Amino acid sequence: DLGNVGEFTKLSRVSQDAEARGMEDQGLPAIVRFESRPKVALEETFHARIIVAYMRILAIESSCDETGVAVIEAGRISHQARYSQLNLHRRSGGVIPEVAAREHIIKLHQLLAEVDLKSVDRVAVTVGPGLIGSLLIGIEGARTISYLLEKPVMAINHLEGHLVADAGVGG
Question: Residue 167's pLDDT band (boundaries 50, 70, 90)?
Answer without folding.
Answer: low
